[in-house]
Amino acid sequence: MRTLYAEGTGPFYRLPVRAKLLLLATLGVALFLTRSPFVLAAGPILGALVYFTLGLPFGLAARRLRPVFLTIIIVAAFSFLVSEAEEAVLQLLRLTTLMLFAATVTATTTISAFIDEITRLCRPLDRLGLMRADDIGLAFGLVVRFVPEIMTRYEAIRDAHRARGLKIRPITMIMPLILLTLRETDQIAAAIDARGLRGHSITTK
Amino acid sequence: MLEPLTLSLQERLIGVIGLNGSGKTSFARLINGLTAPSQGHVRLDGLDTVADAEALMGRVGYIFQNPANQIIMPIVAEDMEFGLRNREPDKTARMEKVAATLNALEIAHLGARRAHELSGGELQLAALAAMLVTDPDLIIFDEPTSQLDIRNRRLMERAMAALPQQRIVISHDLALIEDFERVLLFHDGRLLADATPAIAIAHYQEIAG
User: Fold this and answer.
1) Model confidence band, residue A200 (pLDDT cutoffs 50, 70, 90)
2) Structural contact between residues B179 and B15, judged by C-beta atoms closer than 8 angstroms
3) Which of A28, A51, A87, B148 has its CA 20 to 30 A from that of A125?
4) Of B1, B116, B130, which has the smallest distance from its Cβ to A195's Cβ?
């Protein structure tokens, strides 16, 4: 059981969760309002400065970003193939900046604080009968809590390949990873119902 | 899939045994309302697990085979407190209850620990604490010792033995249920035996070959 939160005391830790989420959302919009490669190139530099000085060991901090960064590279490569090189570079810079700042927010915010803030933010929509704020907060917390578990499962499948002398191929990794994740999702949902963390839901078998 | 059965479970200690895939977990999920029966009813103290699900919420505790999947928050005490939010609006009262539960289980030292740093046995005890803090009337244990070494198994057994609640324990560990009052043996979705531990275990060993 891993956690994305890292103990620390820096300025980002002292910022209220709402301010951090607002900053991230504003940054997300602002990054798409400019096409200047020079302005956008400052993003990953600044993001890396903030993220890599949180106090996490460098290797661990970098490993945490690897899956997302690989996805960003795939997206940029796709842009390069269907569009132009400039577009691919802009995508790469924008998404890398967002990744670094988002990783900073998750590393400096406890799951409990996330759940409380998301629940509070959703409360007005709850009062209008549009959603259940508690469920949205819980769902958000569960994503932050269980995403690192996918990495643990990936490593277990990779080790199983190695133990059997099998070559690690995306196709033989992804299917078991999806199936294993879905099976565990079912167990987690059952545990949430059993603990009464939300309204009691029923499945018929 | 379970075949139709009629049972009244009054005993305080009930064991459930059977081969893998025999229907033990399906039976347990019916009791706490995680699965609705395709026909008939499951009642707890007269309350229907489907129609009265809200009223029964928290009355049946369930300890899953993999405790890591039932712990949501990173810190043990924080996770326990989180489980009380739907029941107790006052945070101080929630934290008092968390401390009392940890003390009762003699694991106060685990309260401030990160769940991912705990051993298998400690994690199982943390899951038990997170469930007990909600004051269930009945507790279902699904293979509570299957992933534990001898030391952690003893820890868990001691904690389980001290519980005043009615307990239903699914286990392949026959020593764990040999002094229970009643044991149910499932096979291919059928209730094959409903007897004392000695009789049910003998029957189980026969079918296991």
Assistant:
1) very low
2) no
3) A28
4) B130
